[in-house]
Specification:
Length: 313
Amino acid sequence: MARGWRFWTALWIVYIVWGSTYLGIKVSVRTMPPLLSAGLRFMLAGVLLAAILAVLRKPLLVPWRQAGAAAGLGIALLGFGVGVVTVAETRIDSSIAAMIAGSVPLQVIIWRTIARERIATATRLSAIVGLAGLALIVIPTGVSGGSEAVGIALMLGATMAWSTGSFFSSKLALPEDTFVATVYEMLGGGLALVVVALLKGEGGELGGTSAASFAAWLYLALFGSLVAFTAYAWLLHNAPISQVVTHQYVNPLVAIVLGAVVLGETFDALTIAGGLVVIGAVFATIRSESRQAALIPAAVIEPPRAAPGVRAK
């Protein structure tokens, strides 16, 4: 069990950096086109990661089916997932986006239920309670209509794309090397976003980019998509998964605090209650899943294949 300084450094990088990506997106889209900025940062991160792997002499060429599967997963997770989150944050606060994104683990439980996987009753109940908390966040704003309602709808769609891609990723023939798979995911998702952005005419909107927005974009590309994912991948290979997945409920808390302190974001009591319910449900779900796994002898457990780059924000 990893308990040294490397473990804690990597874990806190994932906690803080991925939690701060919602703030970074909010600042970047103030003066940068959302789809184009998201696509370019993923392409930059993908190229940099490929260059690092090349220096380390890791083979980047993989069978075309594996490359295609990884690129397709990148389109689902990064294109329909993070790309749509970026658009949503042009209409809603970063804190609200983080609260809704926090429901992804609960949505995956729904997918697992549909697939008739064996799931503990406590896990299912936690998912139901968490989704009820999600309703407290989205319904009051959603029924009021307007720009915020559209942002809420986009954010829900993004989380559904993320949970769906995450669930089905284990069924794909992806490259064995996590980092190589991530290169194809980032380049596939980034290229798809850039193409859509150019078709929408976002290419001419970069001229008015402010220094703050550019700095936030660069932070997202280098730290959100490259540094934090490297730390996450290291954790997956060197720490118990029950500890690694704690970021699922820490990230929204970090995003909420940063949104309030840096951007002055506020929300009503109902939204706060909903956010706490979602985060609490994710915490309960992770504990339930960890306990269930601990009861099964290691020899009879088929190691789950995590989606490479599944949280490469």
